[in-house]
Structures are given as structure tokens and as C-alpha cells.
Design goal:
The complex is a heterodimer of chains A (320) and B (464). Chain A has 320 residues and is α/β, with parallel strands linked by helices. Chain A has 2 domains: 218 residues, P-loop containing nucleotide triphosphate hydrolases (Rossmann fold, 3-Layer(aba) Sandwich); 66 residues, Alpha-Beta Plaits, CATH 3.30.70. In chain A, 31% of the residues lie in helices and 29% in strands. Chain A is built from 10 helices and 13 strands. Chain A is elongated, with a radius of gyration of 24 Å. With 464 residues, chain B is mainly α. Chain B contains 18 helices and 4 strands. In chain B, helix 2 packs across helix 4 and helix 3 packs antiparallel against helix 4. The chains are: A alpha/beta (320), B mainly alpha (464). At the A-B interface, helix 2 and helix 4 of A face helix 1, helix 10 and helix 18 of B.
Chain lengths: 320, 464
């Protein structure tokens, strides 16, 4: 797949603070790539460098064939992390204005705005002022404003933050729609579930460094699966089951234990269970737990993606 | 449409579409008219005070007559002022002589009598001097007496060893109109008595009292080369007004820009704009949009002022037009406006890019506003003594050049000084555009708390 975005050995320093370290990854044309990491991991700094809003301290960035995002800004759509539109403008005027900045004539921008608002169920709100819209509605309007010029590359910084589950689902549909129309989507988030559902590829970032680049399945495969067993089972017996690489006692009450048996590489849960039943182990309850992207992140980085890593050195802006 | 013009258009429309903008545009001329009309209204609505005058004892004989004479002379003097005002108004407006013009009416209302002497009520006149008479007076000054018979003041005249004296009872303790009038009248009566005592003819004394000198002012700089008229004073007044107008417009425009950028920063719109346009395009667009607003305000104020002048004082309007156009003052005004606005607008916009609330901006705006008071204080000096060293030096400081040079313009400063200061102002304005562009770019994406240190750091780093 041809790369729409390439980063090679990118570094970003703010004075003495090293926000992004030796970052390299690629995003293929027409794919949805999740840029994952806790707050403060360096995602926003990287996005700003990709857009050309901030220069990289070192390294190379190529987006849509240009070595500076500013040269292809009309082909990029951007939704920033903290969102806002002109409060006194109507959604149609706001969308048309941002579209015009990207080269769409105002009249055409208004026509597209009405059409897209209608598609998103916001036709009734098109004449209201932005300040009269709910947060979810305003966020949809802002996403429309970011893509009204039909960009080839869409960058969304924490697009799901602050949205209720219904609106999150709607936004996921919009992102899928963009990719279906041929756009490349890079979105940052610290909520792994969205990435798990949406992404063809993920890049995991922690403390400014890349921890992983690949598909969601590849990321999950790096994490261990567990077989949870409950009953009067000796941990040593559980450890002897085929494919089990280690056992941890979660709880114990009146001789009944809950055990977490980690499956080693290539280990299959069904075989371990079959052996447990054939061996006469007192298994009263079992559960085969597949690792989530969240688990994979923790395994790969040693960090919790929900934990804030923001560092604000004196006199410098926070690396987000 | 290119990005700069799009941003300028949005910026202009954001304000021009609001009712508040047009109300504030009309507010200035409205308040200017009110500012002039309110004193007239207050004066004209002042009641003519009813005053009773009582001579206490034979030694006070003649003092009541002196008060009446003073009142008569005052009325004559007011009529003379009215006549002169009427003449001046006729001259300025070109209205036919004898017509009851607005100015004449206003002066008539302003210069009407402030008090009238009424007959002393019998209860006061008949009361025995002392406590009984004072009690009677109290009743006539308060609502114990029906409104029609009530008095505003009662004056008891007497004469002691030093000369005429008076006790003034007044309905309102804070109203000193009667007190002042009686003091002047008694001083005049005493002067007359002293002169007469010295053997001077009373008619001579009276003529001397009435005498009012006629003074004419001449200057080689006047248009006629002789007597100084309104036409000669107008350029200085226009220069001064131009300086204040520039200050007001520039600071208003720059403040609008500061608030606009601050709002976009707090709403996170700046970041979206930066992904669509360069910092310089955004800055230029915003500066241009607010400049158009400022021009709209200027045209609005100018139009209202011109319409008012042409309607009520066409001759003065003609003179002002002549000075503005033939003297090149309008051209200089435009040049100072452009340079001054550019300097302050980009600086305020750059500060706004670091702030999310007006409180954030206070750190830098406080000292800047203090500096901006300097030209206001110096402008009046520039009018009366345009060659003062302080004025000359300060008008070379680019931040003050637009206002002070505008105020100095009517005194014909050397062309070298004028052109040099203007060149310096434009060079500095360009430097400010460069400097503020860097600060704007850094500030727009920065989360740091604004301080002189962070601002200087941003300029050095330019957001990199």
C-alpha cells in the first residue's frame, strides 16, 4: 500500500523537554490509523508537526508527497483536540467559511454544508447559532467543517472526547464513511476501544516513544491470553496444563481458588481446558479471556493509557 | 477569494452584523451632542430664585437699592453676551441676522436671570429682629408655606464698621447662588461708596463699573496677515481633534482585535485556522477586517459630524473642509492612521494570541495603557507650544508619532521632521508586524501563562 504519511526519526524538543523521541511510522493511503497513547504521550505535538504547525527538531515527515504539511494544507482536514467554532455563526456559515479557507467557493461550501448536515440529522439546526447547539451537535458540525473540502487526509485529535456513547457511535460511522470515500484517516485517542473497532492499523505511543506499529490483531497477539479457572484446584496442577506458562492466584475462599493461568505463545485455551477435565481437576467455572488492545498497550508500554503523562516544563508548553 | 480576505471579511461581518456595533458607532456623536447640550439643559431648567431683601436698621439704608441696581446691570451684561453670541452664530451659520437661531436661543436660556427680588412678606418685615424674625424666615423657606408664597432666600442687609454686610437665609444649604450674587453686589456698592466718599463723581464711578474692553487679536500668521479669526484657530483645533480621534480610533480598533484573537484562542478556533492558513495570513486578515471596521466608524462619525456642521454651521463646515483638503491635513491623517493602527493592532493581536481571558492580558496591557496616556497628556501642550523640546522629542517616538505629529501639524513643523518621524513610524510598524507575527504564531499554539518573559521568549523562538 502506498504511504500517505511517513515519519522517519522525528524528534521534538521544547527547551530541555523531549516530547517526541525518534518517532517513525507510516500510514497507508485509504486506511484508518489509530494514534494511541495516554494524554501527554506526544500525540498532539506529533500531529502539529505533521500539519506543519510546528517544526520537528529533527527527522523527516512526508505527507501526501510533501515534506511540509503546510504545502498540502488544502488536501488535509483537521479536527483539533479541544474544539470550538464561532459561537454567533450558523453551522452552514461556519462550515462554508472553513471550507472556503481550504479552497471551496463559499456558495458551494454552503450547499455541501446543508447536504452534510442533513445526512447527519442536523438539518433542523442549520439556521441556529452555534452557541445554541448541544456539545454533540457542535462536534459533528466541527467534523463536517474539517472535511467539507473533501480532503485526502483527515487528522482527528481525540475526536471522541466529551461525547456520549450515542454520539461516539455516530462519529465512528462518520470516520468509516470518510475511509470508504477514499480518505486516509489518522486519529489520536487514549480510549483503546474506539481504535479496536475502527482501525486498520495502530501506532502506540508512550512517553514520546513509539511502542508498537501494526494491526490491532498484531498488537493483541503481543499480549498474553488468560484462562481463568475457579474451583478447588492446586496452582501447581494448573501450571502443568498444556500451553500454560504461569499461574497467579487471584482469590481463595474455603479452599476454592480463582486462578489466572497465562497462556504462552502458541498456547491454546481449549487444549488446556480439555486436559484439566480429563485430569479430573475440580473446575467449577472457566473463562477464556482474549487480550484487549488496552491489555496489549499495558504489556507493550508498561503504562496505563488512561494515565495522564502530561509534563509541563517551566516556560514551555505541554506536550500533549 | 484568498484566505486573508476571507478572514478579513469574517472579522468585519462578525462585528458589523451586530446591533451593538452600530449603537456604539452612534453613541459617540450622540454623547458629544449630549455633552454640549446637558449643561444648557441644566442651566435652562434652573429656577429663577425668589429672594426677599430686608434692610436691618437705618445704617443699612440704600443697600437693597444697590442689590436691585446690581441685578439690573447683570441683566444688561447678559443681554450683551447674548447679542455677541447671536452675532457669532450668524457669522458661523450664515443665517440671516435677527433670526432666532438655535445658538441664540441656547445662550438666552443660559444667560437668563438667576434670581428675582420679591416683596418681603409682612410676617418677616413685621417680626422683631432676632429669634422671632428668624423663625418667620424659616417658615417661608420650608414647606410650611404654600409653594406659591415660598421663598428661595431671604437677605438681611446691614452695615458694620467695615462696611456693608449681609445674613443670607437660603432654602438649600448647598445653593450659593444668592450668596455669591449678594457678595458681588455689596462689594460693588462699597467700592462706589468709597469712591464717592473720596469726592469722585457718581456718574464717573458708574461708567467705570460698566466699562467692558474690546480686545482684538492680531498675528502675522493669520490668514489676513493681521487680525486672528476663527479660520486661523481652526487648523489647531482640527489638529488637536485629529490627534484625539486617531488615538481613540486606533486604541478602539486594536482593542477589538485583542478581544477577537483572545476569543478565538479560548474557543480553540485559532488552531483550526492555523491548519488552514499561515499565521501571517490570519494576522493580516484580522488586522484588515478590524481596519475596515475602524474606517466604517470613521466614516460614520465623519458623516454625522459633516452633516451636522453643514446643517447648522455651513460656513464653518466650508472652512474645515478647506483646511482638511487644501492643507493636506486629510492625507497626513490617513498616513498616521495607517501607521499607528498597524503598530498597535499587530501588537495587541500578538498579546491576544497568548490570552484566553482579559485577566491574562492584564500583565502586558497595564504598562502599555500607561504608556498610551503620555500622548494624551502631551497633545494639549503640542497645541499651545508646538516647539517645546518635550513635544518635539516625544513626537519622534514611533508609538506617539501619529498622535503628536497630528496635533503639531497646524504649527507647520519642518518637513524633515514630519517626513522623518513618519518614516520612522512606518519602519517601526513593519518591525512590529514581523515581531508580532512571530509572537502570534508562538502564542496561538502555546499554553504558557503570559508574562514579559514568555512573550520575549516566544518572539525569540517564533513558535519553533
Amino acid at each position: 500500500m502506498t504511504a500517505a504519511l511517513t515519519l522517519e526519526g522525528v524528534n521534538k524538543r521544547y527547551g530541555g523537554f523531549h516530547a517526541v523521541r525518534d518517532l517513525s511510522f507510516q500510514v497507508g493511503k485509504g486506511s484508518i490509523c489509530g494514534f494511541l497513547g495516554p494524554n501527554g504521550a506526544g500525540k498532539t505535538s506529533t500531529i502539529r508537526m505533521i500539519l506543519g504547525l510546528q517544526p520537528a527538531t529533527s527527522g523527516r515527515i512526508e505527507i501526501l508527497g510533501a515534506d511540509d504539511g503546510r504545502r498540502v494544507r488544502d488536501r488535509i482536514g483537521f479536527l483539533p483536540e479541544e474544539r470550538g467554532l464561532y459561537k454567533k455563526m450558523t453551522p452552514v456559515d461556519a462550515i462554508a467559511f472553513f471550507g472556503a479557507l481550504k479552497g471551496v467557493p463559499l456558495g458551494e461550501g454552503r450547499r455541501r454544508a446543508r447536504e452534510m448536515l442533513e445526512q447527519q440529522g442536523l438539518g433542523g439546526a442549520s439556521r441556529k447559532k452555534m452557541k445554541e447547539l448541544s456539545k454533540g451537535m457542535a462536534q459533528k458540525v466541527q467534523l463536517i467543517a474539517a472535511v467539507v473540502h473533501r480532503p485526502e487526509f483527515v487528522i482527528l485529535d481525540e475526536p471522541f472526547s466529551g461525547l456520549d456513547p450515542v454520539n461516539q457511535q455516530g462519529l465512528e460511522q462518520m470516520i468509516r464513511g470518510l475511509a470508504a470515500d477514499g480518505a486516509t484517516v489518522l486519529f489520536s485517542t487514549h480510549v483503546m476501544q474506539h481504535a479496536e473497532r475502527l482501525c486498520d492499523k495502530v501506532v502506540l505511543l508512550a512517553r514520546g516513544r513509539k511502542a508498537f506499529e501494526g494491526t490491532v490483531d498484531e498488537a493483541k497477539a503481543t499480549s498474553r491470553r488468560f484462562l481463568e479457572l475457579e474451583g478447588a484446584i492446586d496452582p501447581a496442577q494448573a501450571a502443568g496444563l498444556p500451553g500454560v506458562s504461569g499461574v497467579e492466584v487471584i482469590s481463595e475462599h474455603d479452599g476454592v481458588r480463582v486462578l489466572k493461568a497465562a497462556l504462552g505463545p502458541g498456547g491454546r485455551g481449549q487444549e488446556a481446558l480439555k486436559a484439566a477435565f480429563l485430569g479430573g481437576l475440580d473446575v467449577r467455572r472457566f473463562d477464556l479471556r482474549e487480550p484487549s488492545l488496552h491489555d496489549a498497550f499495558i504489556d507493550l508500554t508498561g503504562d496505563n493509557p488512561d494515565q495522564d503523562q502530561s509534563v509541563k516544563p517551566a516556560g514551555q508548553e505541554a506536550a500533549r | 477569494m484568498n484566505r486573508t480576505l476571507l478572514i478579513a471579511r469574517r472579522e468585519y461581518a462578525a462585528y458589523a452584523k451586530t446591533v451593538g456595533f452600530w449603537l456604539s458607532l452612534l453613541a459617540f456623536p450622540l454623547f458629544a451632542v449630549l455633552g454640549g447640550a446637558v449643561p444648557i439643559l441644566i442651566k435652562s431648567s434652573e429656577p429663577v430664585r425668589a429672594v426677599a431683601v430686608v434692610e436691618e436698621g437705618p445704617q443699612a439704608s440704600g443697600l437693597a437699592a444697590a442689590i436691585r441696581d446690581a441685578l439690573g446691570r447683570d441683566a444688561e451684561r447678559q443681554q450683551e453676551i447674548q447679542r455677541r453670541a447671536s452675532e457669532a452664530a450668524e457669522k458661523a451659520t450664515g443665517m440671516p441676522a435677527g433670526g432666532p437661531g438655535a445658538a441664540q436661543g441656547a445662550f438666552a436660556r443660559l444667560s437668563g436671570p438667576r434670581l428675582r427680588i420679591v416683596e418681603t412678606p409682612a410676617a418677616i418685615a413685621a417680626a422683631a429682629p432676632g429669634e422671632a424674625r428668624d423663625d418667620a424666615v424659616r417658615r417661608y423657606l420650608t414647606d410650611e408655606t404654600p409653594k406659591a408664597d415660598r421663598l428661595d432666600a431671604v437677605v438681611f442687609l446691614t452695615r458694620d464698621a467695615e462696611g456693608p454686610a449681609a445674613r443670607v437665609w437660603t432654602a438649600r444649604a448647598t445653593d450659593d447662588t444668592v450668596e455669591d450674587f449678594v457678595r458681588d453686589a455689596l462689594r460693588s456698592a462699597n467700592r462706589k461708596a468709597v469712591f464717592e466718599g473720596a469726592g469722585i463723581d457718581p456718574a464717573v464711578v458708574e461708567n467705570a463699573e460698566k466699562f467692558r474692553p474690546t480686545i482684538s487679536v492680531f498675528s502675522p500668521q493669520s490668514a489676513s496677515g493681521g487680525e486672528v479669526g476663527l479660520r486661523d484657530k481652526l487648523p489647531t483645533l482640527i489638529g488637536m481633534a485629529g490627534g484625539f480621534l486617531l488615538w481613540s480610533l486606533i486604541i478602539t480598533g486594536a482593542s477589538i482585535l485583542l478581544n477577537s484573537v483572545m476569543e478565538e484562542k479560548s474557543n480553540k478556533i485559532l488552531e483550526v485556522l492555523l491548519s488552514s492558513a499561515s499565521p501571517m495570513e490570519i494576522l493580516t486578515g484580522k488586522v484588515l477586517g478590524v481596519a475596515l471596521l475602524t474606517i466604517t466608524v470613521l466614516i460614520g462619525w465623519g458623516g454625522i459630524g459633516a452633516a451636522g456642521l453643514v446643517s447648522f454651521a455651513p460656513e464653518t463646515a466650508g472652512m474645515i473642509g478647506d483646511i482638511l483638503l487644501t492643507g493636506g491635513m486629510l492625507g497626513w491623517f490617513a498616513a498616521f492612521m495607517i501607521g499607528g493602527y498597524l503598530m498597535y493592532a499587530v501588537l495587541f493581536a500578538a498579546i491576544g494570541a497568548f490570552c484566553e481571558t482579559p485577566r491574562d492580558a492584564q500583565t502586558l496591557m497595564g504598562p502599555i495603557m500607561m504608556i498610551l496616556v503620555i500622548p494624551i497628556m502631551t497633545m494639549s501642550m503640542a497645541m499651545t507650544t508646538p516647539d517645546a523640546s518635550a513635544v518635539k522629542i516625544l513626537s519622534w517616538v514611533p508609538f506617539f508619532t501619529p498622535f503628536l505629529m497630528m496635533a503639531r501639524l497646524p504649527s507647520d513643523p519642518p518637513m524633515l521632521e514630519l517626513v522623518g518621524a513618519m518614516a520612522g513610524m512606518f519602519a517601526f510598524a513593519l518591525f512590529m508586524v514581523w515581531l508580532s507575527g512571530r509572537a502570534f504564531r508562538a502564542g496561538a499554539l502555546s499554553d504558557v501563562k503570559l508574562s514579559w518573559k514568555s512573550f520575549a521568549g516566544a518572539i525569540r523562538g517564533g513558535g519553533n
